[in-house]
Write a structure and sequence with these properties.
This protein is of the alpha+beta class. Helix content is 40%, strand content 17%. The protein has 11 helices and 17 strands. Strands 1, 10, 12, 13, 14, 16 and 17 form a 7-stranded mixed β-sheet that branches. Strands 2, 3, 4, 5, 6 and 9 form a 6-stranded antiparallel β-sheet that branches.
Length: 419
């Protein structure tokens, strides 16, 4: 397909996505219930457009995770006993909204296009024109949503070992995730100095430290120590040091980001116990799980993946409910399992509300084929309304994340929530 046609296609999709997202989703749901034929037409058009984009621009997600058993995760869980207005707990067709969401993301994410054109890069990080990273450079820049950044511009060249040596001599004072990035002098792309070969040279440099992680927000003392490293680099390399965010503003942002982190660092799970006294047979679990599309893999548990996701490929996992949580790969034929759990880490998942609906379907299928009952985190029977209540909470959380500028399942979300 010619470049001009490809450009036209992307323009049309962007216009369609912006127009559709302007509608309130609740109004769309009510409106489309009155006219199933109209919904079907729009859904068909959305899928057709998305299929064209994916085949033309070869959209491929580079993000994936493989969490360990639920027993390894110490996080808060969503519950079904939360009061949700009845109209919000009703089931709606989330596949339609997922298609719209994917169209919107297709219009905004960097794409690998024919002839290596139309790659998008947010050069506002530096506030100046810089070359964009190639397809192998995912994560080759700081993230202004969650990082405190120091810019060290210069014409260069600066040798990799000299800059990295100064940085390494001083970073021992820091505990938060941090990186030193450089704009390669020859290729004109940004990369992590730690991952480059020794002979690499750079013009501009950037230091970045993550404002929040599992241990909490960055402290004033650590941010000050980080700033001193920036000054030492600037002095040794004879270049200016520029803070892209005011020091006090960064501390305030870290507090706000921590509040956001606490609110969204949540797991949704459903448990399955035998409907009787006999435990599940491990061999039967493996057979049914694989028939339902799950793959046994890392951490010795089952995982459901979505290779078409415009974000993290991982959807949810299936593990033993009881310690150690993993399955014994050497004992499939004789092992007995007293309970199962399906779980998803909401910030890590692309289209989390739709993913939870899929996870609930898999849980119900497992119950049917294994002879089990569906329970919540507190071992209380989980009804359809309970599932809808949890799903409504997930929808709200996903909406809040997007309003905060951090899309569920994005690289930013995976970094912030420690995937």
């Amino acid at each position: 397909m010619g470049l001009q046609v490809a450009l036209l296609l992307i323009g049309l999709v962007i216009v369609a996505a912006v127009s559709l997202s302007a509608y309130d989703k609740a109004r769309i749901s009510r409106r489309f219930k009155k006219s199933r034929s109209e919904q079907h037409k729009i859904k068909h058009l959305a899928k057709e457009a998305l299929s064209t984009i994916e085949s033309t621009f070869q959209i491929k997600s580079r993000l994936d995770i493989n969490p360990g058993p639920l027993t390894h995760l110490r996080k808060q869980f969503l519950k079904q006993d939360v009061r949700i207005p009845s109209h919000q707990a009703k089931k709606i067709d989330h596949t339609f909204f997922e298609d719209i969401d994917r169209l919107e993301q297709a219009a905004s994410l960097p794409l690998d296009v024919e002839m290596d054109v139309l790659r998008d890069f947010d050069d506002e990080v530096l506030g100046a024109d810089v070359a964009e990273p190639g397809p192998d450079q995912a994560g080759g820049l700081p993230d202004k949503q969650i990082d405190f950044i120091i810019s060290l511009p210069g014409k260069g060249p600066v040798k990799r070992n000299k800059a990295l040596g100064i940085y390494k001599q001083n970073e021992y004072e820091l505990t938060k995730p941090r990186r030193l990035y450089g704009l390669r002098y020859v290729e004109g792309i940004w990369s992590d100095l730690d991952k480059d070969v020794e002979t690499t040279q750079y013009s501009d440099l950037m230091l970045a430290i993550q404002l929040v992680d599992q241990q909490g927000p960055v402290s004033e003392s650590e941010l000050n120590a980080f700033s001193q490293i920036g000054l030492k680099l600037a002095d040794a390399l004879d270049r200016p040091s520029k803070l892209l965010t005011n020091f006090d503003d960064a501390l305030a942002k870290a507090i706000r980001l921590q509040d956001f982190y606490n609110k969204c660092d949540v797991i949704a799970s459903v448990h399955i116990l035998p409907d009787g006294e006999k435990p599940f047979q491990a061999s039967r679990i493996k057979e049914v799980a694989e028939d339902l599309g799950m793959v046994f893999g890392p951490m010795n548990i089952f995982h459901m993946k979505n290779d078409r996701a415009l974000g993290c490929r991982h959807m949810f996992s299936l593990a033993s409910l009881f310690e150690p949580g993993e399955f014994d790969v050497n004992n499939w034929q004789t092992a007995e399992i007293k309970g199962l759990t399906l779980f998803m880490q909401i910030p890590h998942v692309h289209a989390p509300a739709t993913t939870f609906a899929r996870m609930a379907e898999v849980a119900e299928d497992l119950c049917t084929h294994l002879g089990g009952v569906l329970l919540d985190q507190e071992k209380i029977p989980l009804s359809s309304r309970g599932l809808s209540i949890i799903q409504s909470q997930i929808e709200t959380m996903a909406h809040d994340m997007q309003n905060h500028g951090i899309r569920p399942g994005s690289e930013t979300a995976l970094r912030l929530f420690d995937a």
